């Protein structure tokens, strides 16, 4: 199939799918994005992302969006503080050397809005959840939607995240629970309503850890803070504890008991968060990600290589989407372009997935495993949920 005339579908309006569509449109190509959500405002998009100069920012540069990104990004958000969990003493401050921000922060919703605004009107078809992908046997595929309708395409790009409906047409891999759960909360108008805690967090991210438990908070734009309790537990820990997340008071009391003995100023994160609590078990795909090449079908981002959220996922999704689009532009045939993309993406993802799996064990050691010595700790990312 000649690439320039290919019918291209992107499933999922996340960073990887949207930047792929943006770059293709920038060069005059036609592409359609199908998104399960009913509208851009159907749900909040989560917290903030650090976008790295060599991956995510490079992808945004290829999309012609880097200047607009920098207009929204917060370089000061790159500062990270590690606190002692029992004294709240500041143990370490990690800030850009010489004031150079290599990974400034941006709210996930702002990044998505930036990408959506860059696309032609009507590119994204909202409220079109895909149920599965059916091959025709000639390199083309039919997208089947949950309403029973279907459309045929020469290339289907699965950019639909952890629980991808496209992935099963390529691979039988499914996400597995990592043993770590994040319980999220947050603070509105933190500087005016929670000034002492806002000062504790500082300009960017605050983290405190002991053994297999941690507390972290991170600034978003507009004076908001995202906060999270992080711990190792069985996936059904809250069922065993008899908790219902609709009962905020009960969840709060249980978490405060879990973190008994931590410094009171850190426990404010659990006592005073004004967004309730959200359970976020962490999943990852098996390492390395691998599949036999299938003409007319590929994956980007979490659909291809879901890994622990240590600051890599969104950057890889952007890079994947950009590199797939650039491969399509560079090769006269769709299949050659997809093969070229996968030959680079899969080994890169394998290395980073292995690294983040090790990083999660370093960040929150399993019970019985000694904590890393001070000074050897990786800078953590925030949940990208």
UniProtKB/TrEMBL annotation:
Chain sites annotated for binding NADPH: 43
Binding site for FAD: 50, 108, 302
Cofactor(s) named in the record: FAD
Extent of Basic residues compositional bias: 376-385
Predominant localisation class: cytoplasm
Compartments it resides in: Cytoplasm
Gene3D superfamilies documented for this protein: FAD/NAD(P)-binding domain (3.50.50.60)
Annotated function: An FAD-requiring monooxygenase active on some tetracycline antibiotic derivatives, which leads to their inactivation. Hydroxylates carbon 11a of tetracycline and some analogs.
UniProt domain comment: Consists of an N-terminal FAD-binding domain with a Rossman fold and a C-terminal substrate-binding domain.
Record HAMAP family: TetX_monooxygenase (MF_00845)
Protein name, as recorded: Flavin-dependent monooxygenase
């Amino acid at each position: 199939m000649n690439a320039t005339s290919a019918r291209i579908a992107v499933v999922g309006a996340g960073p990887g799918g949207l930047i792929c569509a943006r770059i293709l449109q920038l060069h005059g190509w036609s592409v359609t994005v199908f998104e399960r959500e009913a509208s851009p405002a159907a749900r909040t998009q989560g917290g903030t992302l650090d976008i790295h100069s060599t991956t995510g920012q490079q992808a945004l540069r290829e999309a012609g969006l880097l200047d607009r990104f920098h207009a929204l990004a917060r370089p000061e958000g790159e500062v990270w503080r590690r606190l002692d969990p029992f004294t709240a003493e500041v143990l370490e401050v990690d800030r850009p050397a010489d004031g150079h921000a290599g990974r400034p922060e941006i709210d996930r919703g702002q990044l998505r809005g930036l990408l959506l605004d860059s696309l032609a009107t009507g590119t994204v078809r909202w409220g079109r959840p895909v149920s599965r992908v059916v091959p025709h046997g000639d390199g083309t595929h039919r997208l089947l939607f949950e309403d029973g309708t279907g459309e045929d395409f020469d290339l289907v790009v699965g950019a639909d995240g952890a629980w991808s409906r496209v992935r099963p047409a390529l691979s039988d891999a499914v996400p597995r629970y990592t043993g770590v759960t994040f319980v999220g909360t947050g603070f509105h108008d933190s500087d005016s309503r929670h000034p002492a805690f806002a000062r504790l967090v500082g300009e960017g991210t605050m983290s405190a850890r002991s053994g297999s438990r941690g507390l972290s908070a991170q600034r978003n734009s507009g004076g908001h803070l995202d906060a999270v309790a992080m711990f190792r537990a069985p996936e059904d820990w809250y069922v065993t504890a008899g908790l219902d997340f609709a009962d905020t008071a009960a969840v709060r009391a249980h978490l405060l008991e879990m973190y008994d003995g931590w410094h009171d100023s850190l426990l404010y994160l659990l006592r005073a968060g004004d967004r309730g609590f959200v359970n976020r078990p962490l999943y990852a795909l098996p390492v390395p990600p691998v599949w036999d090449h299938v003409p007319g079908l590929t994956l980007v981002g979490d659909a291809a290589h879901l890994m622990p959220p240590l600051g890599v996922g969104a950057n890889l999704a952007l890079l994947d989407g950009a590199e797939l689009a650039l491969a399509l532009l560079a090769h006269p045939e769709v299949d050659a372009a997809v093969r070229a993309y996968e030959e680079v993406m899969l080994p890169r993802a394998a290395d980073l997935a292995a690294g983040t799996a090790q990083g999660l064990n370093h960040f929150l050691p399993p019970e019985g495993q000694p904590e890393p010595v001070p000074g050897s700790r990786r800078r953590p990312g925030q949940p990208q949920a």
